[in-house]
Specification:
Radius of gyration: 17 Å
Shape: elongated
Distance between the termini: 22 Å
Strand content: under 5%
Number of domains: 1
Largest sheet: none
Number of strands: 0
Helix content: over 70%
Order of helices and strands: HHH
Length: about 70
């Protein structure tokens, strides 16, 4: 990958981050939060995860963290 291509991709990534960060900072509507919780619970059940992972689920959906 050329330096100019890498610079362009970096600039695009920064712009997307700047534009979407305020959207991600808003709390999820309750309907969407419930849907996410159900999908995560289904995935946990499908994988046979431990009780500890299930206990962490409510706090994970209540306080989503952005990933860099």
């Amino acid at each position: 990958m050329t330096r100019s291509m890498q610079a362009s991709l970096t600039a695009i990534g920064r712009q997307l981050h700047d534009e979407y960060l305020p959207t991600l900072a808003k709390p999820l509507p309750s309907d969407l939060k419930d849907l996410v919780a159900r999908l995560v619970a289904l995935e946990i059940n499908k994988r046979g995860s431990s009780k500890r992972a299930i206990a962490v689920l409510p706090s994970a959906t209540a306080h989503p963290e952005s990933k860099a």
